């Protein structure tokens, strides 16, 4: 289809992982299995979502051996091994690069959530010794955090709700249309454009699932390790 292929930041092509992610999201959107009527039902779940993210903090701290507030490549390899994620060295490096939103070369807490979501949704996943067929969800939790997986599913549902044209990206038009349909008369354009700016991390005019999730961690009030000052100074005002 080629949709979105020319939309990368100047000179940068979407990475392999991003292309897989967009394809996965487009397939989910087109499957018609999601029937969210309004974003409000997601907002109602913010507290639960925040809780499930907070549960990840314990895992994060465990692998952040030196307590720096971030996980480096070696720590990540160790972490994925213990979570029984079967993945090649090269894939770890790709995942690391994809999740390192701020290009700091280490994975901060909120980036760690993005990383786990990619592991979960792209199925670069564990339990490969089990009897399940490829593409079939296993009964067993894939990353060992069932509550978090339920949260990821909820956020996928939200993303699909906004991706009106089902191409695996949320565009400005998608977002404004979704808001207008969800709550008529609520200035969808204005709200939509503000939210869009927050979500479009690399400012390339489209929002990928990764960017959506990353914005989501802010909406539910999640903080990076040692982020207190940022919140006190007003955070993002949501
Ligand atoms: Ca980083
Ligand atoms: Ca779209
Ligand atoms: Ca973007």
TrEMBL record:
Q: Taking every annotated instance into account, which residue ranges of this chain make up the domain EF-hand?
A: 51-86, 87-122, 150-185, 187-222
- Tell me if Transmembrane helix is a UniProt keyword of this record: no
Q: Name one Pfam family in it.
A: EF-hand_7
Alphabetical list of SUPFAM superfamilies matching this protein:
EF-hand
UniProt key word Calcium: yes
Q: Mind telling me which PROSITE patterns this protein's record contains?
A: EF_HAND_1, EF_HAND_2
Q: Which domain of life is it from?
A: Eukaryota
Keywords, A to Z?
Calcium
Looking up SMART domains in the UniProt record yields:
EFh
This chain belongs to the protein called EF-hand domain-containing protein
According to the entry, what is the taxonomic lineage of the organism? Eukaryota, Viridiplantae, Streptophyta, Embryophyta, Bryophyta
């Amino acid at each position: 289809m080629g949709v979105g292929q020319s939309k990368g930041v100047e000179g940068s092509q979407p990475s392999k992982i991003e292309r897989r992610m967009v394809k996965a999201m487009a397939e989910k959107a087109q499957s018609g299995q999601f029937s969210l009527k309004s974003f409000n039902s997601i907002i109602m779940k913010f507290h639960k979502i925040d809780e499930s993210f907070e549960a990840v903090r314990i895992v994060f701290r465990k692998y952040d051996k030196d307590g720096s507030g971030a996980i480096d490549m070696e720590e990540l390899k160790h972490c994925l091994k213990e979570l029984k994620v079967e993945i090649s060295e090269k894939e770890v490096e790709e995942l690391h690069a994809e999740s390192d939103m701020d290009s700091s070369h280490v994975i901060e807490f909120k980036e760690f959530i993005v990383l786990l979501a990619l592991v979960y949704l792209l199925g670069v996943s564990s339990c490969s010794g089990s009897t399940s067929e490829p593409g079939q969800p296993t009964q067993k939790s894939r990353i060992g955090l069932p509550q978090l997986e339920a949260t990821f599913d909820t956020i996928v549902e939200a993303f699909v709700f906004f991706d009106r044209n089902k191409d695996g990206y949320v565009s400005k038009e998608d977002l404004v249309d979704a808001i207008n349909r969800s709550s008529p008369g609520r200035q969808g354009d204005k709200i939509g454009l503000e939210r869009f700016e927050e979500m479009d991390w690399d400012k390339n005019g489209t929002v990928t699932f990764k960017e959506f999730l990353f914005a989501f961690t802010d909406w539910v009030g999640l903080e990076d390790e040692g982020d207190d000052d940022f919140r006190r100074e007003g955070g993002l005002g949501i």
